[in-house]
Amino acid sequence: MSDADLVYGINPVVEGLRGTLRAPLELLVLKGVLPPRLSEAVQLANAKGIAVRLRDRQDLDRLAGHKHHQGAILRVTPFTYCDLEDLIGYWRNSGKPAFFLILDGVTDPHNFGAILRSADAAGCHGVIVGKDRACPVSGVVEKSASGALAHLPLAQVTNISRALEELKKEGVWIYGLAGDVDSEPLHAGDYRGHVALVAGSEGEGLRPNVRRHCDHLVAIPMRGQVPSLNVSVATAVALFEVVRQRSL
To answer: Which CATH superfamily is domain 84-247 in?
Structure first.
């Protein structure tokens, strides 16, 4: 199966069948009585003319490499990143204010997947990651993203700072998520125009060079004793502050 990627878990499989970014090739499901959500996946596959194969649990465990596939594995065409120019074109064609997310060094697959899920839910036009110091797309990422990668474009660039400058040329304002005491409060920013949020790595945050290319540094106000949030949680809070302001 080297000519395809495997997506596992009921929600990622259903979204993979619905999505347009990768073509579904074959659906593998557990033999026996199917729960409603898995029956929905089978119906979607049948409607699209995609082969459905019944498999024993041991076969699914072997293919997924673990037992957490929820009885469903979808073979899809291999994942490919899009170019930054394509991402900008996608935004331009949408006719809406730009809304991008840039990840500077997120390496944990669970965090990466959770961030992608939040970005899709918030209506981002796409996510930009670097070629280095970045988590690759994997089965764990796909499952944590709960199907977001079936709909959300993901661009890979060689230089994050250069990508930020390209976005600036398009009229996009860059907001870096930082925890500095001299950063602006997150809610003080104006995100109703063309914006891009930049989130740093789990341990170090934004790199100095990336920080210098941000128009503003913003921080989530913290009221408790714990000084910071997990990067996926912090990114979700920032994404939905944009959604909140744009919905007013």
So the answer is: SPOUT methyltransferase, trefoil knot domain (3.40.1280.10)
Per-residue pLDDT tens, the chain, 248 aa: give them: 447 899 999 999 999 999 988 999 999 999 988 889 899 999 999 999 999 999 999 999 999 899 989 999 999 999 999 999 999 999 999 999 999 999 999 999 999 999 999 999 999 999 999 998 899 998 889 989 999 999 999 999 999 999 999 999 999 999 999 977 679 999 999 999 999 999 999 888 999 999 999 999 999 998 887 778 899 999 999 999 999 999 98
pTM of the model: 0.89
Residue pointed to by tokens 């990840």:
103
